[in-house]
Amino acid sequence: MANVLSVLQEKGPTLNAGKCQFRMENLQFLGHVLSEKGVSPAEDKVRAVLEAREPSNTKEIRSFLGLVNFNGRYIENLSTVSEPLRRLTRSNVKFVWGPEQQASFNQLKKCLTSANVLGYFDKNAPTQVIADASPVGIGAVLVQEQRGVHRVISYASKSLSDIERRYSQTEKEALALVWAWKWYTVGNTKYVPVRNELSAIGKIVLRGTRILIPKLLRENVLQLAHEGHPGIVRMKQRLRSKVWWPGIDADAEKFCRSCHGCQVVALPKSPPPMCRTPLPTSPWQHLAADLMGPLPTGEHVFVVVDYYSRYFELDVIKNTTAESIVDYLTRIFTTHGLPLSLKTDNGPQFTSKNFKEYLRHNGVEHKTSTPYWPQANGEVERQNQTILKRIKIAQVEGKDWKTELIPFLIMYRTTPQATTGKSPSELLFRRTVRTKLPEIENINVDGEVRDHDNELKYKGKVYSDRRRHATQSTIECGEKVLVKKQVHDNKLSTSFHKEPFTVVNRYGNTVEVGTESGPVYRRNVTHVKKYNARSSNGEKDISIVQPDNTVPTDLPSARPLRFKSVPTRYKDFVLGYLNC
Questions:
Q1: Full-prediction pTM beyond 0.85?
Q2: For 539, what's the count of Cα atoms within 13 Å in the CB-facing half-sphere?
Q3: What is the DSSP string of 91-107?
């Protein structure tokens, strides 16, 4: 008690005198009674078993066995004694309460009422693990010699599987010995030390041929083993061949993962699962725009895509200033009307004051993709690839690529898309556009388009996530991370910037990171990874840096839309949809 009070006084906590009890002969804790004699089951737990009535169905048997198993450490050969009851809990066995079950029911009550007080484990006392096997189960008992008396520390048992029951008696007893050893050395109790494997040469303690390293020297040994920066597997191999201490593998992994140099030059982590853009409710609501180029002629192709219909407009321009972009958008908006939002990358013309003011004045929300992550604006990037392919074909055939873009646009706008099943012009204008090919007029069915789009998007997401080994990122605000370099000076450049950043905000797969005195950057979670800092004593630094409240919070969420399908009974109806 003096030691407890001394520690409390040193650490500074305040105790409520009215809730403190002193000079207690025993203490009930979590269903067990702790006393100077040892550990015994609590009276209320024993009473619950004694007062239990005979089970009348499988559910009541499981409930009774749950009460008994709570105090299983006090019952010898529990799995063998309870086997007739457990047999009735199997799915293919009919419930029949017979003399065998009644005897097992009574025996379990008797064992618990006559249970001995178990001793406390003493790591310095001589220890024995005794095991035995029956046709249906194996059991073990941990015994120690304390003050000249053999004390039972704990009982343990395990029922045999159908395959194990076919073992010979010798094999069952061998299984019991192996299981009992693992139970008390590797299991939750961790009772038995590896004393029999230790030896000494002078002042050096060995486990087999490996040197046992004391705590004060383990950090130095880990530093020596990590010279040359081996990976986790090789570092473990170096250590295992020469030295040992409890938990050596875990310490080696922790040391390797917290190495600053290894973290900076390591490869980036796998990309996160793909976030599909939900189909808008109507055409020309949400658009994406991008500049493709410069081409060999010094010109750029400015592309604007409608997320709903996949219809895109383009223009070949030489001047890429914000004013030129605004002029072209004005002509497009005059034809098709103002959208609700426009998504672009972070090019200087799109982040300029004039461009932002133009969109704000017209009531168009401006969204920007994550820097260095073009996949975030994937719809327009995909169209850029299609356009560039046609330009290359015109160059190969020696034709004017600007002229060749006209038949390409007619073909693209009137051809049904794989994802929607409808042509872009039909979805945008709500009518089919006449071409040279003969056709029959068809009526647009929005529900059919939506179902087809959801199905193809879901299949594409599953395939892409599996192919890219996508995993969900666990990075959170306040964590230290390393940021991937986008430009490498030479072959020896590290994969990540050597200085760790702090995550100040996250929305979807986009994070905002910064330092205490520097600016805030936006990156995709694929371009950052958690940084494991090492303190002076070798432990990880788990301090949390609070995010800067000045970071903008009006950025969009990338929460995926739940897949919805129309019931079969409504297949002949035209339905409206609500976004949930």
A1: no
A2: 4
A3: TTS-----HHHHHHHHH
